[in-house]
């Protein structure tokens, strides 16, 4: 396995381009299974999660053509198999969402349950409940969901018991080909859901309300191909803004969408950053100052994103003052805390591990660290940037799942990071 060696102490300064959103592209690839003609998705980031999803489509016999710019063309109707095997679904949870499109377009599918992951059990009960409400017959056997429907799925009124991004996306996709109207209530509102709805409507679907808590889908008989450009990755963008702020530096992120990061920008201004915004860029400048501590609560969009929580903890670890961070989305998303305390951070967990109280110190000490979640892993890279000496981040395949060319992008900003094979 590879590791990152980080020499701490450099102040980030420069520009970078945001990649396409992992959490948009990874749901748009299964969505292409709904179409009768080829669907081309552009601005797809070159990430492990994406290649795993492409591998899954290939294992079904779906023809996928990729060009050097990572434009991905999917030919659903070349499909030969309707099964998503455990060894692929376990490494890339979002691949579970091929179930709905296969059911809606071909009437049957056999997909492995995704199982839990490091940050929590992450059940899919809302996904299955929604598909049953649309008329699917669902059986569970040997860890697989075996689903079928006689004829078409039927429109229904569905209320999600919890705000779920994947659940909202999954049922919205399946409902596009259902017979009649589907109304989804208590939907998640993330920008990636809006991006997916826009792509589905370009394929001829009839979806209204994406981005609000109520989404209405009027089913159509079939969907055609389209070409759709994936939105900028707001979590990647936010990560680099936080990294620059933690080092007292300056960064301009191009191809970004400031509207998707309103709350983070507000919080970074509270930390003392000067922030300028353009239509497709965000510039942050700490003017060499040490950041002030930030307090926040994570919750579904438009509240503060759980996917940026670990990165803020890294910033707070060397900030002026004490910050309180409450995690309300996942049950076990503070694994990075134990690694940062080994670097000298002063963090205590309270409230049954739902809240981290971070008392800023002047400097962290470099150390060998590792994490089991992609956002926790990248937060250790940020901690390494602000530490004295060398930090070695292990298991960086987690980072490669969500960050395209992470060391190149950071070294272009003045960091000193090397990728080495595990010796
Ligand atoms: C998406 O995961 C993202 N992944 C996650 O990003 C992100 O952290 C999460 O949304 C929350 O914003 C992708 O889009 C590929 P949820 P998802 O369903 O859809 C519970 C990253 O770092 N729940 O909104 O799986 C669940 O356990 C990843 O890029 C149920 O109880 O998240 C969790 O506690 C990590 N039953 C909460 O809801 C269900 O049927 C939110 O999960 C579904 C979810």
Describe this protein's structure:
It is a single chain. The chain has 423 residues and is of the alpha/beta class. 30% of the residues lie in helices and 25% in strands. It has helices at 22-31, 48-59, 86-89, 99-106, 125-133, 165-175, 191-202, 234-246, 262-270, 309-317, 335-341, 374-385, 397-402, 406-411, and strands spanning 2-7, 13-17, 39-42, 63-66, 72-75, 83-84, 108-112, 137-141, 144-148, 157-159, 181-185, 207-208, 214-218, 227-229, 250-254, 274-277, 281-285, 296-297, 322-326, 346-350, 355-359, 364-365, 368-370, 387-388, 390-394, 416-421. The strands form 7 sheets. A 4-stranded mixed β-sheet has the order 23-25-1-26. It has a 4-stranded mixed β-sheet with strand order 2-15-17-16, covered by helices on one side. The protein has a 4-stranded mixed β-sheet with strand order 4-5-3-14, with helices on one face. Helix 11 (335-341) packs parallel to helix 12 (374-385). The radius of gyration is 22 Å and the shape is elongated. It starts with a strand and ends with a strand. Ligand EPZ binds at residues 23, 26, 94, 120, 122-127, 162, 164-167, 188, 306-307, 329-330, 374-375, 402. Ligand EPZ is lined by residues 23, 26, 94, 120, 122-127, 162, 164-167, 188, 306-307, 329-330, 374-375, 402.
Q: Given the structure, what is the number of helices? A: 14
Distance between the termini: 9 Å
Helix/strand/pairing category: alpha/beta
Sequence of strands across the biggest β-sheet? 23-25-1-26
Largest sheet composition: 4 strands, mixed
* Percent helix: 25-40%
Strand fraction equals: 25-35%
Q: Which ligands occur here?
A: ligand EPZ
Supply Rg. 22 Å
Q: What is the number of strand segments?
A: 26
Chain-averaged pLDDT: 96
The coarse silhouette is elongated
Low-confidence stretches: none
